[in-house]
Amino acid sequence: RKEVEQDPGPFNVPEGATVAFNCTYSNSASQSFFWYRQDCRKEPKLLMSVYSSGNEDGRFTAQLNRASQYISLLIRDSKLSDSATYLCVVNVLRSRALTFGSGTRLQVQP
Amino acid sequence: EAGVAQSPRYKIIEKRQSVAFWCNPISGHATLYWYQQILGQGPKLLIQFQNNGVVDDSQLPKDRFSAERLKGVDSTLKIQPAKLEDSAVYLCASSIDWGLSTDTQYFGPGTRLTVL
């Protein structure tokens, strides 16, 4: 079983749509959680951290359910520029390297 | 602020040849990571340095891969000899410190390796 599992997609949505991505992780000792964004042929970049209480950054909302070991990302009012691969990421210890999922590809269409 | 620098950006070699990649982290960042990203997958950690010491190299194929960060600043990753399955993007990342509250890792643009 993979440590971090994501639906690879692609998710094809029209502009203005709301889209949600889900992710599960296997290590219950995971302590930090993130969503990274990766554009085609570019490096990953931090989109947002994910907290147990849930957090929002503009059109993006992230949720964490520690009991179910489940992380989600909601994008509202999708823009063409949101087209990218979204990587679910966990960190077992604050000082250790990140474990990435394989990513979910989003294509926003005009 | 300058980001993480990597070179070369692209490299094509034949199997059994050797190759080396270079990374210069963001100034002042104590921790440096090398990741391997195979097409269609997320990045996978190869090795993590804290200053010039190795913190984690458990996923580094040590029979063919080696890495060093001698002066605690820039780093080199080497593959010798390369196999077809080593074709991937090699990403270098750095973070300011492993003991502080920030967990943000900053990635370089990567080196895209093709082994023929």
Largest sheet of chain B: 7 strands, mixed
Chain-averaged pLDDT of chain A: 92
Helix and strand run of chain B: EEEEEEEEEEE
Please tally the β strands of chain B and state the result. Answer: 11
Radius of gyration of chain B: 14 Å
Overall geometry of chain B:
globular
Structural class of chain A: mainly beta
Distance between the termini of chain B: 37 Å
The helix content of chain B is: under 10%
Count of helices of chain B? Answer: 0
Largest interface: A-B, 23 and 21 residues
Strand content of chain B: over 45%
Taking the alpha carbons of the first and last residues of chain A, their distance comes to: 37 Å
As residue ranges, the low-confidence spans of chain A are none
Q: How many runs of DSSP E, i.e. beta strands of chain A?
A: 11
Proportion in β-strands of chain A: over 45%
Radius of gyration of chain A: 13 Å
**Please, how many helices of chain A?**
0
Explain what you see:
The complex is a heterodimer of chains A (110) and B (116). Chain A has no helices and eleven strands. Chain A is mostly beta strands and 110 residues long. In chain A, strands 2, 4, 5, 9, 10 and 11 form a six-stranded mixed β-sheet that branches. In chain A, strands 1-3-8-7-6 form a five-stranded antiparallel β-sheet, with no helix packed on it. In chain A, strand 4 and strand 5 form a beta hairpin. The radius of gyration of chain A is 13 Å and the shape is globular. Chain A starts with a strand and ends with a strand. Chain B starts with a strand and ends with a strand. The model of chain B has no long low-confidence stretch (mean pLDDT 92).
Brief digest:
The complex is a heterodimer of chains A (110) and B (116). Chain A is mostly beta strands and 110 residues long.
Write the layout of secondary structure elements.
The complex is a heterodimer of chains A (110) and B (116).
Chain A: E1 4-6, E2 11-14, E3 19-25, E4 32-38, E5 45-50, E6 55-57, E7 60-65, E8 70-75, E9 84-91, E10 99-100, E11 104-109
Parallel strand pairs in A: 2-11
Antiparallel strand pairs in A: 1-3, 3-8, 4-5, 4-9, 6-7, 7-8, 9-10, 9-11
Chain B: E1 5-7, E2 10-13, E3 19-24, E4 31-37, E5 44-50, E6 53-56, E7 65-68, E8 75-79, E9 88-95, E10 106-107, E11 111-115
Parallel strand pairs in B: 2-11
Antiparallel strand pairs in B: 1-3, 3-8, 4-5, 4-9, 5-6, 7-8, 9-10, 9-11
